[in-house]
Every structure is written in C-alpha cells, then in structure tokens.
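Hi P.,

Sorry for the delay on this. The queue was packed all week, but I finally got your sequence through. Input first:
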Amino acid sequence: MKIKTPAISLPIPGMYAFALACAVVALAALLLTLGGAPVAWSQESPDCEVIDLGTLDSDVGSVLQADGRWTTEDCDSRFLDNSDAHTYRFRLSEDGQVRVNLTSAEGDSYLHLLSEDGGRIAHDDDSDTGLDSRIEANLVAGVYLVEAAAGAGRGRGPADFTLSIQRAVNCEPTDLGSLEPGAVLTVEGAWNLDDCGGRFREDTPARTYRFNLPQDGMVRIDLTGPEGSDPYLYLLSSDGGYLYDDDDGGAAGYNSRIENDLAAGTYLIEATTYSDRDHAHVLTEFNLTVRIGLEALESFHLKAEAIHIPDQVVRGEPVAIHYRVGNAGRTDLTENYSAEVLLVAKRVLGPYTAYEKTDMIAASDGRWGAGASYHSGQQTASVTSASISEVAPFDVSFRRSGPTWVLLAVITYDEAGEEVGFHRILKEDLVVLDRFAFGPITVKVGDMDYEVLAEADEEGAVTTSVTSVEDPSSEVDPETWAKAVYAAGVHTQKLEGIFKRPAISDLPVTEKREEISVSNPSSDTLLEMFTDQYVSAIAASGLSEAMANGEVVNPITVEDLVLSAAETAGARYASLAASWSALQDRIEGDGVLSFTDAFTVQFQLAYAESLISPLIAGGEAVQEARAAEMGWQDEGVQEMVAELEERVSCGSAGAALRRALGAAGVEDVAGLLNLDTEMRAALPSYGLVNDSISCAATAADGENNRFLENLAISDNGEILRLFGYELPPVPPVTIPPHRLRILSRMGEDGRIEHGVELSDGERMLPDVRHLPADATIGQWRVSSDVEVDGNPIGRIRTRLLADGRIELGFLSANGEEIMPDVRYLPADMPAGVWMRSSEIEVSRVEVLE
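Then the structure:
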C-alpha cells in the first residue's frame, strides 16, 4: 500500500525569521490576485509601455516570443508587491486553446493573463518546470495582455526571462468508437509537456478520449504505465462532468482502474498522471483499455463509497468522520480474506495530521457479501447500507490548520495477509481552521452590545473583530474584547446546538426539576461536586455500616443507589434544559447572549456532560436490566454496559475514583475504596458510572483550555480567574540545537540536489532543492524550508564558484548564517552520489512550556 499527497505547487522561498511578515505580504498579494476587477498600474510613467507582439494566427504551433530582463528598476507589477514586470500585448485571430510560458534560469517567474482593459483572466506561479510559469486557456478571438513578473521580488536581483505564446495542441477528445460486448477499445499513447492540462489535477499532462456505450453494462477501464510511472484515471460524462476517478486501483503497482455499472450513453475518459509536469517520469508511455467488465461479474470488489466531514473543522477539536464502504462485486469476499478501512489526513505542503484505521473485518464473520454496504452513521447511509459494529466513525483531531486532504481507503488482504485490493476516495477541499470561525454575532458585555465576527481565510487562519454596536468607530478595550469573543464563542459553539451534543442528546427531560448551582467548569470544581454527592449517597445508603458488620453487599441495594442518583440527575437536567430553552427562545426573539449568561451556560453544560449524563445512563441500564428476562445478561443491557465502558478513558477498577477522593481531601478514603471494591463486585456497572464521571471531570480542564485557545483568549487573566484558574509564570526552556550535515548530489541533467542529514541519520529534502546546471557564478541560491517534525529549521544556501566548485551554507530559521568547515563540492563531482559537508549546529527557537 502507498499513501501519496496530491500534486501541488512548490512553496515560494522566504526566510523563516520573517515568516509572519511574509505571510501577511503573501496574503495581500493573493487577495489582489484573486480580485477579478481591472487593477490600476502601481506606477504610471512613460517607461511602462505595453510591448506589442503582433497576431497569433490560427495554426497549431504558431508562436509569439519575447526575451527580456528584470533589472530591479523596471515598472512595478500590477499584482505583486516590490516586483519588476513587463507587459505585452497580442492579438488572437481565431478562438482556440492558447498556452503562455514564462521561463527564467535565474529568476522566479510569475505570469498574469489579462483582458485588453487589464481585467485578470488567469495567473500562475511555478506550474511549468521548476519555478517557471505556465497558463493554458481557451480564449475567444481578440486582444489580450500578458504581465511577465519577477515573482520573488526585487530582492532576488536581476534575471533574464523568455515569454512565449502559442497555439496549444488540439484538446478535443479522441473518439474510440462504440464499446460492444466482447470488444476491447485500446490506446497506446505517451504524455509530454505540450499536452493539454488535466481538468481536475493541477498542472498534469492529460489525454482525453470519447467512447459510446450502446447498452447498460459493467465497464472496466484500465490505465497502465511502465515501472516508475503513476497513471491517474477519470471517467466523465459526455459534457465533461465528473463521474469517477481512480489512482492505484489497478491490477499491480501504481496503475489505475475504474469499474462501474454504466447506463447506455456517451462518456469521456481523461488519462493523466498523479505527478505534475515538474517530475520527469510523467513523460512516459501509457496503455488505455476499455472493455465490458465480464471478469467483475465473477469477483468481489471492495470499495470506499462515501465520506462525510463536518463543514467546520478546527485544529485540535475532535470531529467524527463518517464513511461508507462496501463490496461492489458480484461475489462474496473469499473465505479467510479480510479488509481494513484506513483514514489518512495530510496538510497540503505539510506533514500528516491524522492516521486512523479499523480492526480487520474478516469475510469469515459473515461480512463483505456481494452487494453489501456498511455505513458508520446516518450521515453516509444509503438505502441498502447497514450498520455493523466494526464500521464506526473515526474520531479525529487534526493537529495542524490549513488546506488539507483526507483519504479514505479499503485495503483487501488474502489469507496470507498479502494486499490484493486497494480502493480509495479523496477529499481535497478541506480547510482546517486554526480556531473557531463564526458570526457576525451580537452579544452583551455589561450594558453594551457588541458585534463579533471571526472570519477564516483560504489558509484556515481566523481573524476576529469586535465592534461596538452603538459606536462602531470606537476602540474596544482588551478586557471587553475578550469577554465579547467568549460570549460569541459560547453562543455559536455551545448554546446553538446544545441539545444535539452527543453526551446529552438522548437524555430524557422529566417533569421533576431540581436546581443546581455550578461555580465554575474546572476539573477541581466538578470533582469536588462529584465526591460530595458520592460521599453523601454512600452515607445515606447504610452500606458502610452493613459492611462494618460483616454483611455482604446486596446488588439490589447498589441498583437502588444508582437509580436514586439517576433520578436526582434527571431532575437537575430537566431544570438545566428548561433554562437553556428559555435562553434560546429569548435570543430568537431579538435578544442577545450576555457575557454573564454565557459563563452560566458553559458551567452548566460541563456539569451536565460530566456528571449528569453518566448517572442517567447508569440508571437506564439498571431499569433495562430489571425489565429484561435475562437481567444483566440481556444483549441490549450488555450494549448499554459497553457504552458505559467506552466513557472510561482515564483508568479502571476504581483508579479514577481514588484520584477524585484524594484530590477532594475526603476522610477515610481507604474505607470508601474498600466498600467501592465490594460494590463493583456486586454490580460492575456501578463502578463504570463512577469512573465515567471521574474521567469526564478530570478531562474538563483540557477541554476548557482548548475552547479558550480556539477563541484566542486563553491568556486572559480575568476569564481564567472566572474559570477557577490562575495564570502561572512560564519559564523559558532551552533546547539543544540540531546537529546536521548538508547533502548534495549531481543528477544526470547536471542539476545539484540538496538536502540535510540529521545526526540520527534521518534525511530531510526541501521541496525547492536544486541548483540549476547553468547557475550564475557567485550568486547564492536558497532552498525552501527544511522541516523537522513539521517545523522549519532553516534553508540551504549554495552558489557556483568561478573555478567550478560549489560552496554550501545554511541559513537558520532565526536568520543565522552558518558555514560548515568542509563546504566545497568539487568541480568534477560524480553523478548520483550523495556528498556531505562537515557537521554544523543549527540553533532552535526557544519555546515556552
């Protein structure tokens, strides 16, 4: 099995020491680029003339070309800050596909295609080889402008460039004819850099084919290539709409296969690659075959069918990812075969952020029958799918924010444990937010109303603003700002969907009500409330005295104790639910949530989820057991007990209770624990209820802190005090430096590839890491970030010397220039051999714990 990242553009180089500033500049540039309206010249002068290239005629291969130089003193780019740009005009004689290339051996090109009046049509950075740019567009006849800009800014120095505009090859589908039973449609082809781009995979060469299916049937499409290639296959409707795709689902290696029941009609096939044009192995041959899938009628085919991810995913916040898998084949999965479901998430241009998988689901357990389909929840259920215990939602916390792809796969294994099938679906449009996004929401702090808006950009970064409703231009002080944000966070993340939260969604609302006051939602407070109630209940039950007299513990007495506690919990929940409903009704009636009410809601919710929910669940299990003919051995009762077991995540057999009693300073802890042991023996579910409460209460501090962090107010002293916390001093911790060597090797094309090797032997290769074979003598070139554990530590520096040698250096993340003692590569270095500098130490940025 392999796990691959989607084809993506390489990152723009920039020093880590200026990461924040660079991020702001990049965002501003991006926003300008994405604007569709015409943008005025940043610099107006007679020197900023538009160079006319003439007319591009209708012949395929017709080319307009211009050579130029960015001198660092040219006109400003319309779109990029502090960047040279030259603007060209051309006329298109007839409608058609046009390709624009901007190449530079020394510079980082950035290309914009504009309408005659300056309106943006398309832009590109790095879609051609290396740092070169490329735009392909289907244009109508008329006049167009092209801006050829230096993408890395004037700080990188002058550079020559070449602009070419040409008619692209014919991108119309090649007709394969009609697919009749028994017939095989075959294509032998090859991808090259001049192919049209793929519809769905950025900057990949693609060939498109058309075929007609005269009658309904199972169709198998195979796209294969030689070893080292990585085909990628799409099946489209006749008008180019997406139907299916596959990567690696073929018979062997990285080959692709689509096999589905299709209705009669006309279809398109896009044969493309996993990798973009920057990878040499995309320039390879391929074979495409289309046939009626008779083999599929006699075999199993396990597939990932659907995936559901919530609309808003926040870094560090647990989310339930639901899915559906099934056997789309015509026969059952072979006896003694098995399969597992895998979920992998990875940040685009970053590390993996989640990895989960199910246990093996064996065919011998009556699973994976022909046509069987299994869902993890109603979010992905189909008309025919079923729920089974082995297929449960993945509870995932994404460790990093930003654009992220999520892969769901089904892997099939034979009786020897060898992989015999792999099918996956990929969600590539997920953006994980760095904190909560919401609004605008109006809340009240004191006597004033404030509007709070938390907006996310396309990178998942959330910016929060607080504005006075009465005086929008007035400045909001930090304390009020934090309180308003907190109230808005409780409104959107807690109160709005409060009755749908998993811990309380199924709790009954009784007629009996009992008020409960919660001073704060901290773990200490919740544990203290639990131990007070526990000690009082035990004292009232008389069990301590009975045990002191040598009497055995009566299970019925323990059941009565659980039922009594559940009844009290139900009455308290009824009171809380009534107050929440009233608050929701008031807000719906043009009211607003106040800061004070927000705190009350969170305190009450923490109590309900930590204490009330387990108590009611325990009481329901007792009631069900008493009503069942088989008592506690009843299958339904056993499922309820199993659900209680799942809540115990911090210890078992009284360990959680021991910690709770000790933390609360309860007298005679040993005696209570001895009694607890006997009560657990008499009624195991009793112990599970107590452990569930202890674990939930202990975890409350972490949940509270995560909630405040996701509102960017976790360092607000006033809010922490109300939560029952003190802001502790944070001592700096010095960590040892990285020890590493710079790696270099020459490729067959004359380029020098660079990376680093850590002292433990681990190698890191930055995305941008090649020194061109024709590099300018004496000019330093800088790689993209070298990352260790997902964190940038610096960049590799390299330059060609006049005598043919190459000098190596390192620029650390805090801006320190480091030169190894042994740092020169020989002019006659052999190809394909890694060579190492002497060891250097790269300091780490100090962190706070």
